[in-house]
Amino acid sequence: MTTNLAAQINGVLAALILLTAFGLLAQRRIYGMLHLFALQGLFLSVSTAIVGYTAGLHHLYVSAVLTLILKVFVLPYILYALVHKLHIRKEVEDLVNIPTTMLIGIALVIFSYHLTAPVRELSTLITKSTLAVALSTVMLGFLVMITRKKAVTQIIGFLALENGLFFAATSATYGMPLVVELGVALDILIAAFIFGLFFFQIRTTFDSLDLKEMEKLKEED
Amino acid sequence: MTTTLYSIIVEFVQIAVVLLAGPALAGWVRMLKCRMQGRTSAGVLQPYRDIMKLFVKDVVLAENASWIFRFTPYLVFGATVMAGAIIPVISTVLPSAPAADIIALVAIFAMARFFTALAGMDAGTAFGGMGSSREMTVATLAEPAMLMSVFTVSLVSGSTSLSQMAQVVTTNPLMLRPSLAFALLAFILIAVAETGRIPVDNPATHLELTMLHEAMTLEYSGRHLALIEWAKMIKLFLYAALGVALFFPWGIAGATPLWMLPAAVFYLAVKMAIVGAVIVLIETPLAKMRIFRVTEFLGMAFLFATIGMLSYFMLE
Amino acid sequence: MTMPSPMALAVYSVVILLIMAISALVFKSRQGFLVNAVFAFSSLACVMALTAGFQAVSNGAVETLILPIGLPDLPFYLRIDALSGFFIAIIGLLGLFVSIYSLGYVRGFVGQRSITSLAVFYPLFMAGMILVVISDDAYFFMIAWELMAVSSFFLVCFEDESGANRRAAFIYLLIAHIGAVMILLSFGLMAGFASGFENFKGYTFSAMRGAHISPGWASAAFLLAFFGFAAKAGVVPLHVWLPEAHPAAPSNVSALMSGVMLKTALYGIIRLTFDILTVSQWWWGGIVLVLGLISAVTGILYAIMQVDLKRALAYSSVENVGIILISIGLSMIFTAHKMHELASLALIAGLYHSLNHAMFKGLLFMGAGAILHATHERNMERMGGLIHKLPWTATLFLIGCLSISAMPPFNGFVSEWLTFQAFLLSPALPNPILKLLFPLGAALLALTAALSARCFVKVYSVTFLGRWRGEHPCAAREVNWPMKAGMCLCAASCLLLGVFPTAVIGWADMAPLILIGAKISVSAKTFGWLWLTPVSSVRASYSAPVIFIGITAVVAAAYAVFHSRRSSKTALTRAPVWGCGFEKLTNRMQYNSTSFAMPLRRIFGFLMMIKESVTPQDANAHGAFQRKFVYRLMINDRVWYLLYKPFSKAAFWCARKAGFMQHGRIQIYLLYSFITLIVLLVFA
Amino acid sequence: MTLLILLGVSLVAAFILAFVGDRKYAPEVNILGSATAFVASLFLAAEVYNNGAFTAGGEFFFVDAFNVYLAVLTTFISTTTAVFSRRYMRHERELGRVGKNAMRFYHAMFQLFIFAMLLALLTNNVGVLWIAMELATLSTVLLVSLYRTPSAVEAAWKYFILCGVGIALALFGTVLLYFAAERVFGSGTAGLLWTNLAASSGKLEPTVLSLAFIFFMVGYGTKVGLVPLHNWLPDAHSEGPTPISAVLSGLLLNVALYALVRCKTLVDGATHGNKAGYIMMFFGMLSILVAAFSLLRQKDVKRMFAYSSIEHMGIATFAFGLGGPVATFGALLHMLVHSLTKSSIFFTAGNASQMHHTQEMSRIQGLARGNPPVGWGLMLGVIAIAGMPPFGVFTSEFLILTATIKNAPYAAPLFLLGLAVTFAALFRRVIPMVFGNLPAHQRKIKVSQSVVIVHMAIVFILGLYLPEFLSQWFHKAVEILR
Prior knowledge:
The complex is a heterotetramer. Chain A is an all-alpha fold. Chain A has helices at residues 3-26, 30-55, 59-85, 98-122, 130-147, 151-173, 178-206. In chain A, α2 runs antiparallel to α3 and α5 (130-147) packs antiparallel against α6 (151-173). Chain B is globular, with a radius of gyration of 19 Å. By secondary structure, chain B is mainly alpha-helical. Chain B starts with a helix and ends with a helix. By secondary structure, chain C is mostly helical. Chain C has a domain at 640-683. In chain C, the strands form two sheets. A two-stranded antiparallel ribbon of chain C has the order 1-2. In chain C, a hairpin with a 2-residue loop joins β1 (63-71) and β2 (74-80). The chains are: A mainly alpha, B mainly alpha, C mainly alpha, D mainly alpha. β1 (60-62) of chain B pairs parallel with β3 (573-575) of chain C.
């Protein structure tokens, strides 16, 4: 596989990641979102592996495997199980309607592209153009968190945001040092357990996972 | 040594003059007034007779009166006489003159008033309190105007010392100063207010609602009343003498020659007679003002004094 | 044995006070002992402070000391010169009298409530004041300054059951702290220009003295510091805490707060403008003068309107601070025009009035405390005739009233007379506008003096003269001897300071000498020690001894002649009051505080917020057939509504808006972060 | 070696407590763990003081004047908090607010949190710093919801999400930093080490670093509690158990600020300007003002002091942004004294709430009469936190304010406004709480105020006498941050 080809494949994967990010923004059903999220994880994992292969950085394989396990299997499974177990309504409710969010999302992508332009100039890596996509994914994940009403969808948005971070880490820098990668993975795992626990706590205290219930702590009169 | 002796003699002569001439001026004013109003008068000496009579009368004190009530007449008398020793009435070489300049003099009168007002409140009647309150109000408003007037005069003489002020006016060549004219006008208005004459107060009234000074001394009797009345007459005389010393000091005795002293006493008598006539001329056609019109009256005095000062800076 | 140096004495006295504060905590279970120990030792410390101050002024030497605490690069610098010596003397003198008084006064609380906090914070308060005037760097000054503020805050809070007291303490502390921060900023400005800011050496006053500050920043520093100090001094319009806090505090504390704590603020102004910054622009003095005049007039007008005795005294403190500021302002203007003789005359007037005010206001507050102690009453409308029950207090209080009303030969008159002299010399100024405006200022000062006489006639006569107005019969008893002793000493010093001004000026003249470089005692003394003649003997002169002896002699003579001549007649007849023949007089028909103040309320009412209402008690009956009417009168401080209310309203409005941020919705919070991120990315 | 003990003790204690945390002796184990760490940190500090900064563990750890003093502070406050929580949590358990499992969880997580803090402080690796910060968040999230009340769960959820997102953005910043560093140091761990980065910050690409700083600012700024990223903070402080509020305010915010300041020095080195400083000044000032006005309307005692923490973090951030020796010295001192004071205030407030069974301030009255140590402790604590002498907070604010008016005079009026409003807001509430008559519903319970006295004594002494070694320490830290 030549470097050029790898770059092309990576570019395609980046586009797919972006697409799934938009998909998360547009998807109305929770299961659909979970699938999209798993898909995004898969693309990320493949992308990491390809970068590792082309750059000859073997620790990236570890990241790729970690990503594959965590983001494609473990986390979606946990979420799936929770949604199933907690009888969460399948429809996603959102605050801002979807076309508007899409428009905002497009604006964010353009903004990210503009923002990363100076960085792109500097980089000598083959993956340099993917940084804009990574930042866009972060922003889109953020947008999902802002516009959705349920705790589960917020978590999905959060995880998508982290996917963007990982993508940035692999694409912009060929991956962080392994110790960092491992630590980050561990943290995410703990986070997954914690939000799992949380869902039960929320569920038992509020009888719902709707964030509307959790707006009591406020200071307006 | 002789100058010291001379000045001490002058001092005692002046105190004697002040003590004796006070009732005389009051008698003169009353007499002229009676004549003006077509009444027969009791003569110039009537105030002396009044005071003598009061001295031999018993003192009846209100049940509630404290030592302040009894002490006040003496203090008022003392303060007034002290003022009499300071104002250059017949001479400018008084040894006690430097003891107080005009500001201190005003304060000495203020102290007498302070105690009179306390005495007015001491008996615990409504009238006394009313008198005290009103008297203090009038004094409050008169004081700034007084200071402005004095300030103008002291600008001319460069001093607030009374003897010095009188001396400067006598020794300098005579000239018409608008500032002094305005200051004099203001001074007259203030003196009217301070000595409790018409139109601010009526010294002869005993109507409850028109009294100011009289209301405060309503509960006094016997020798206390005598002292207060006497002090009041001296005060009128002193204000007249003060005005004369500040604005028309010509004829006042200096350090030398010796014969000027009797001459000064004579000049003083003439000037006082004129002042008395002026008082009568002012008082006869006027009625007493309402208490809250006094504000305007004294405001006018303040205005005159301020114009006097401004004209000093702008015209002279 | 040689006398310890002023610095040593001052430091020892502070140490004694601090030890007292700590030991008060240790002995808190033995309250009676605590009263004796704390106030006896405080008296001792005050004597030491007084000696230190007296010596420092008469020596005129500058003494410095560096304490090895604080920051390693910024230890505590101490310095005593004539100016600080003068103020230490004031603190020591009144502190001594008040501490003696407190021996009796505080004992009244024992058994009723715990006096531990009083015993802890009273010495701390004293120590804070002494430290303020001897500190010589910005850091230590601020510590001392706030120590003074905090300890007096706790003293104001001493009787904390009442919500009004707590509120008063709160307002006091708030304004004091805002002022302190302003002072701090001013120090920061000056230190910034001084060399060695980076290594903390710029914070010393000596470094600030050497700093070359551009005029604009110097003015900024002056304004910050002036308003900071003015908040503490109770200058209108920053005075609102004062009439709240003084009545709330125990009377011995009010005496100290009013008598000396306000003076430390004036000390700050003098130290900063004359010593550290050196007056460079005349308008600084103009601001001080104008605010002084406003404070003097409004202060006394509000004082007249009060029915609460201690509130009236508090407002009168506003007035007196105004008078002192007038002198300081004059002095600054003269200094800016390089007229050093006149400047030192004005400054001496201000300093003298500070000393005098400490004495008579201390005396009056102690007197008010005595009345409170005896009658448990602060409202003058329910007093009257106390001169019969409290003869000592009445006489001593009268001396205080005479002094504060500027009656010769008492001390208040001397300093006001000096201020007038300074005013009357202002035509020498080269600036024509100032020439014209100054006399008007003098007229306002005259108005103030007259109003203050009126105020204290009212206060004294309503409280002590006439008949008792309370509902229950008066059960007052004369106070105990330490209280009497404290007041007697104060009264004696009022008289002595009034009668021997030349001696005092000769002593205090060192302060203007070091600050301005000129002194007035030379001219004041050419005419002999008996005569006070600033500038020259032809210009003006005043001799308190002559007047005092003269009036006493005439009074004695008159008494001898007219009173005791015929012994049979000296027996007086007592009879019911005459009252123009009206026989059904009751105690409630007397003139009271409100009615006494009525004419002035009509004349100067526009300066106040007056709410007056007369409501018939029986609403059904016709107005002409009412048995009773209810008369209500509320006099509020206009400044409160003009300045503070809008401020607090605005603050609460902002708070409500800030509350919107905490919206409760997590999406909104996320949106904040998101927007922050985007905005930063766009702009950075 | 000391370093390993220091870090290991907390981790081991966390592990042990995870099993025995509900036993009777668990609080003592907790105290012992913290105290051992404290002693170890003292040794470490002595080492740094004598020999200067050093790296350890193959450059994995880096100890210098800046972080070691924070490490000592962290272990000290963790010890005192452990002492405090012994009685406090026992009482909570008696009241039935927490169960057996919760106690085990509480103790274990407390130690884990301390471990995370220490790791964040002492590591030399920017990536590990990030991991430790995340770990700190995760370990405290479930402590905030320890009481399982709806509001506690809500607060914890907000804390989790907001800080999670924030910290994720910080990771993006870290990635960008690594991106810039890689071009200088090549691929591998070297590019993430402080020691390397700081030494050659001038070579780093300025545009990338300023971009990275924005992510650090928003990321770590969320944890510092800077407005408008602060919304989690009052909720988490008011709903969590008091010891947790104390350590959140006293430690977590400090460590987050530490991370931010470290990043700032790198950016400054790269850009040769103070752009990062201006951003920090802006957020600092905004925090001061918003927190001040928010303080005015608080009804809950712990919530109010949470806002006060925001304000003080704003002051410190502002001062670090301002730069210069005086302001930086002030900011470092401010972090120290604020932690000590604020944690002691939280202890006192916790005791007061236990005495009154409520955190509502209008129901808390007459503390000085009911329990003088609590009442006066609260009063003095508030006097200290409001920046009045003779407490250490005054010293730091004095330095910061004077530096402000020298270097940024336009900010001084805003500063004045913020301080004034804060002062008013605090005393408006605290005076009625401390003074006044004893309310009928106040209960007489045993509370532990000894640690409060220790804290306040230290703050008091620091206000009057800053020891030479501490000052030297700060001066060295100032040199590092220059």
